[in-house]
Design goal:
The structure is a single chain. The chain has 135 residues and is of the alpha+beta class. Helices cover 16% and strands 16% of the residues. It has one domain: Deoxyribonuclease I, Chain A (4-Layer Sandwich), CATH 3.60.10. The chain has 2 helices and 6 strands. The strands form 2 sheets. It has a 4-stranded mixed β-sheet, with helices on one face. It has a two-stranded antiparallel ribbon with strand order 5-6. β1, α1 and β2 form a beta-alpha-beta unit. The longest helix is centred in the middle third of the chain and has 12 residues. It is globular and about 55 Å long.
Length: 135
């Protein structure tokens, strides 16, 4: 029997970007991450085509993920990942996923907006193909 180890890093970054700062401080100790996903709380036109501005935090995040050899994954469908109950605020794309680009088993992720339930954030999913191997 063959076992596969996949390192997935899931995080939540608050309004002060504490998780992003933690990642920057510990990036030299992080190795072999295939997937990093979470609520980054960063609005930017790089991942939300309906948002017209950009954030310096997004550059900081992309520097960290680049040093971890991760690339921003594009969703199959471009829909918000955070839905607000306040009609004065717009829905946002603040949850996203970074993937290891050299892994053929993983590619794009899906945003499951139809199963939002009572949460204000929707689940992100990814299919990982595991190839059966005979030894």
């Amino acid at each position: 029997m063959k076992f596969v180890t996949v390192l997935i890093y899931i995080l939540y970054s608050d309004d002060y970007q504490a998780a992003l700062k933690y990642l920057k401080d510990t990036e030299t100790n992080l190795h072999n991450i295939l997937i990093m996903a979470g609520n980054f709380n960063i609005r930017d036109r790089k991942w939300d085509s309906f948002y017209l501005f950009y954030s310096t935090y997004s550059d900081f995040l992309l520097e960290v993920t680049d040093s971890l050899e991760l690339k921003l994954s594009s969703s199959i469908y471009q829909v918000p990942t955070h839905y607000t109950n306040n009609s004065n605020n717009s829905n946002l794309v603040i949850n996203f996923m970074f993937l290891h680009p050299n892994s053929v088993e993983i590619n794009n992720h899906y945003i499951l907006s139809e199963i939002q339930y009572s949460l204000d954030h929707v689940p992100l999913t990814i299919n990982i193909s595991i190839i059966e191997e005979y030894i």
